[in-house]
Structure prediction request, 224 residues.
Amino acid sequence: MSHSTFTRLTLVTALAATVFTTGCANMDETQKGTAKGAAIGSVAGAIIGTATGGKNTVAGALLGGAIGAVAGNVWSKKMEAQKQAMEQATQGTGVDVVRTADNQLKLNIPNDISFATGSAALKPELREVLQQFAKGLTENPGTLVKVIGHTDNVGTEAHNQQLSVARADTVRDFLDDRGVAKGRIEVAGRGEREPIASNDTAEGRAKNRRVEIFLREPEAAAGR
Prediction:
């Protein structure tokens, strides 16, 4: 290995380690898993680049980081089974069930079946969806959940932030009442900050009033 190649590898390794150790302080568990995977992938990519002549060390690190970013979570047969179960349970409700790029199961729950405008009380339609969701979680104790509440831009930003958190808390409490420990459930509110449609129309505002639920199976849990 030439001195210049060794230097490039050392710099890439140090950078990956720095990003992971300093960045994790302000990350949630999902982000930590992604960052860890990205750091490991970057080092692995750099090593591969070095082994193939050293000319592609940096490119290998970038590619390895992109691939490694999904290594913090796994998509197991259990996750696929839960996805299929939730697709069946939410058929015709308007709930979008997808697998994300970082191997999470995501439920995007629209306003018309989740919460009334300005309210954090669960609608009956959402209670039925969450009942099925809770059943799957109790059967798979290694999986973790994150609930994120969103609002439109009607009202003050401070009020919308509080409302989005209250909605996420309500979902967490419902799951907890059905045997899913609160320690497995992370909650967050995004208020009006992450719209998926224009707030200039009633239809767009309705789309923005939503709840997102993420289910993930970390590598450590999947290996048990």
Q: What stands out?
A: The mean pLDDT is 78.
